[in-house]
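Homework help thread (please don't just give me the answer)

Our assignment gives two proteins as sequence + structure token strings and asks us to describe the second one. The first is just a warm-up. Here they are:
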Amino acid sequence: MKRGNFEALSLGKPNAHPTLSDVRCSNASKLVQKLAEHNFFTNFVVYLASIMEKEYKKSYFLIPGEANAQQEMPLTLLATKIIEIATEHANTLNIGHASMVDKNLGWVLSRLTVEMRHWPKVNEHYTIITWIESWNKHFSERNFEIQNAQGETIGYARTVWMVINTVTHENAGTTELCLQDGLISDRECPIAKQAKLKIVECDNPVNYTFTYTDIDFYRHVNTVKYIALLVNQFTMDDSDRCSLSRFEIAFMSKGKYGDQVQVMRQTVDGVSSFAIRHGERPLVRARFALRPR
């Protein structure tokens, strides 16, 4: 490391680095005391936070086996990639699953909002960039930008994440994580945050029973399986005539293997609102806005 870079650690005052004689202290405790006097450890943590990547980028190639009937990236695949890249970024920041598992903690997606101008097509490259917008003791907000092969923005996504206790499956908050303010990016996400999703009622709900392949790592219903169940309420003709412009989903309660649920739908002016309920308990609320192709 160059001296100029090392000085960014700022050991209390300019040029106040531990000297060679300090290093030759008779035992380790004296050296630790010397370093503490210069605020070395505090400033070193700040320095590490400053060099960690506030943004994380990954490029992909859409193969035919991943595409939908319109030869485009499906919403379920985008949701999968959003979860994947968020997980990878969290791991690089040391706040991912590997760093949380010993504390019986894990991240779960609470809300997802997507707006797309265009969807990647088969045999096209696309890139997803993610960054942390904010956090508090209850949840963290993380955003995403989707770009085409030319680096042009074709969509954005907003997410809200919560930390659960993986034993009790209750909200654990973020206070036990080492979250540094220096990890928050000032990159903007121009799409609106998710509004409150309304209660949905209908006379002819679709019944569905969650099976083995619907269940995830935490033995809850998988996020993407909820989305797939909602997407399947649209017909082939719906998807041939229109593409998805905005999607919002809020996960309200956990579904489990064998749960028999009802899918409720109301459509007004091209906007479809959904709810998935287990008895009277809402599991998910969502909204789809479509535009003509």
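The one we have to describe:
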Amino acid sequence: MNRSQSKLTQGIDWPILGLYFALVIIGLLSIFAAEHRDGDNIWQNIITLNKNYARQIMWLGVSLVLATLIWLMDSKFFTATANLLYVLGILLLLLVLAIGQDVKGSHSWLKIGGFQFQPAELTKLFTNLALAKYLSSLETDFTKLRPRLIAAGIALLPCVITILQDETGLALVYFSFFLVMYREGLPSVLLVIAFSAIVLVLSALLVDNKMILLSSLPCWRRLRSIFQDGRYAGANRGCSSLSGYGHSVPPL
């Protein structure tokens, strides 16, 4: 009995599992604290799924069941189906482009009956399995250019399709696979280029005309005080030089 138990628990990363449950509990308590009101029947809300924390508890139970099934499966199953699951994920992403639902400006959701989900979330797992299978293959010589391009293509193909769904934040997660490639021998210069691309994308999302105008707000306050003293012309030139780069100063 002890031998069978030790065999079942062998390979479990207990610190990671503990951190997972800690994060789940913190998240549930945060949602509960935001939604709970005096007089609420907690058990009734959980049974009827009227509150967000109740639905989160339901999905926690579903995830634990799935995790247990995956834990009891033979690892060869994932090796055998990795490429098939990856192709399925790509097809789901392409299906989203055709019949996907718009949710808060993101065209990345599929709705099946009363259930909707993001295929890009599933495809992250499928990409992980496909990339792991390819890198662990004895035929893969990662010191050569062709295997590196294939590995990069496995990671970047779903990333590009996800960007087309206006889900840039989720697409950036796929760049983390380059860390795995770095451990397999990817030159550090290519890793720097990949993460520099992430910085450029984030900068393009954050920096726009509004950000430039906001940076000149202290100058506007100074300008108002100078204008009241009758020295508008000189202040206008000074503020233009600060908010500058071709931006004109509108009349006060």
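TA reply:
I won't write it for you, but here's a hint about the kind of observation we're looking for: Confidence is low (pLDDT under 50) at residues 212-216, 231-252.
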